[in-house]
Amino acid sequence: MYRSHTCGELRIADKGKKVTLAGWVQKSRKLGGMTFIDLRDRYGITQLVVEADAAPALVETAASLGREYVIQVEGEVLERESKNPKMPTGEIEIKVLNINILNASSVPPFTIEENSDGGEDLRAKYRYLDLRRPPLQRALALRHRLAQEIRTYLDGQGFMEIETPYLIKSTPEGARDFVVPSRMNPGTFYALPQSPQTFKQLLMVAGYDRYFQIVRCFRDEDLRADRQPEFTQIDCEMSFVEQDDVLNTFEGMMRQMFKNAVGVDIPNPLPRMSWYEAMDKYGSDKPDIRFGMTINDVTSMVQGCGFGVFDNSAYVGAIAVPGCAEYTRKQLDELTEWVKRPQVGAAGLVYVKLNPDGSIKSSVDKFYTPEKLQAIADACGARTGDLLLLMCGDKRKTQTRLGVLRIEMGNRLGLRDPHVFAPLWIVDFPLLEWSDEDGRFYAMHHPFTAPKPEHEKWFYSDKKEDLERVCANAYDFVLNGTELGGGSIRIHNADMQKRMFEVLGIGPEEAEYKFGFIINAFKFGAPPHGGLAFGFDRVCALFGGQETIRDYIAFPKNNQGRDVMIDSPSKIDQVQMDELFLASTVKE
């Protein structure tokens, strides 16, 4: 063995022990005639000391050590004279008796410490060095603990972990598929799964009534901080269940994960909110309920007063921002420009300031009396010192824009503490979304989601207004403004599935080509079933108090979908192209 203990293990109770440690040199410094070395592994740091009267060869070896040298040391555990209470090993040090250099190191391109001096691109190029840093080690350790909690809980609930294929049939409905050419079947392609959706439903047909998988999924879509082309899902499915059975089961899983992995108790039961309430109050189907500032419909209160912008709008909404009445004109102008950005898309912003001295000032004083403005403010729950912000237009678009503004103001006011957790379920989504551009319905979730039983009468109607009323038997798990997971009770009846394809404009031939295997499976006694999938990378990041998922993935891609460490994706040589019957159309 290269070591008897790790670098985070020894304590004052080990004083006097002869030990062997191995790890990386974090730093080395000379004080007088003595050399102090911080030795690091993934468990911690231990201070080593080479005394002034040590053997000359030992002193010379210690002096030769550079950052990130891999060494083995033998020595005796001593009590430190100058203790460091910030380190778990801060009460001891190792009097070094022998040093064995296992591997020298080039000077690393950035400091491998808690806070590095390396930029994001540089650290991505040398990801294997960045992974030595404590923040990333803690992130991956948290990911490991969460995975163990998931497996322990689901095993205890009778779930079986079953693997599904990575090389499947392309059925593009949402994001683009990654495709893989088949050498043995020229001119044909596999797709990498966006999720194991159809396979887990087939497992229900096969009688495996409780399935789960911590599985890699693939989507060829534009990237951002919380999105990667390859990501991990906690994928689950259950037979002979209704919505409450699924929600209660996985609420229990999340409760155990919070408690055992991060020491947090979440409400029991979790709150549930309809999609319509979420949009009306928060302008989002993934509301952050850690703070108030909810959206208020003030349409009837502001119309008929001569302000044409409001008078001619289908909807006027407002949020009350606490303590911001002292915003200057410059700050309000900046905020107005902010909501006009393409990412928000608002035409403008109306404000009402409830000044600390009791006066009211607004950008529409010409049209509204102070008494009227006070009544609007009261309806929104605003108090003296608050700032009222109003937008107008199409109802859903305006609510969405107010929702984005609400989150921005929450960030500016520090109301979104990453260490405060407020989970909830969103339920009763619309089953279908109408596209004016395409003149057709799309499934809000996916084409295997069942309508709520009480809405089936509208589902089988040919009227557009009836179909728009149908709610899906679907649900999302939302935490701190992020959708962590979602699922639904599935269609298990072949006739209902056929009707869904009709509503979505998928003809019999196309349905047979894309989904014939699952349609046929439903003819052989498919049980009622449902499930959901959690985004495991997002779960890890939010549990760790971060917005980006990259630190919780060992080897992530950048925003262009590239791995700059291994320079991928890359071209393949002509021999491989010929074997796969591929011809490049990219101009050099």
Topology:
Blueprint: E1 18-31, E2 34-41, E3 44-50, H1 56-63, E4 70-79, E5 92-103, H2 120-125, H3 127-130, H4 134-156, E6 160-161, E7 179-181, E8 189-191, H5 197-205, E9 210-218, E10 230-239, H6 243-262, E11 272-274, H7 275-282, E12 296-297, H8 299-302, H9 308-311, E13 315-321, H10 329-339, E14 350-354, E15 360-362, H11 370-379, E16 387-393, H12 395-412, E17 423-427, E18 432-435, E19 440-443, H13 456-459, H14 464-467, E20 474-479, E21 482-489, H15 494-503, H16 508-521, E22 529-535, H17 536-543, H18 574-579
Parallel strand pairs: 3-5, 6-9, 11-17
Antiparallel strand pairs: 1-2, 1-4, 2-3, 4-5, 7-8, 9-10, 10-22, 12-13, 13-16, 14-15, 14-16, 17-20, 18-19, 20-21, 21-22
Helix pairs in contact: 4-6, 4-17, 7-12, 15-16
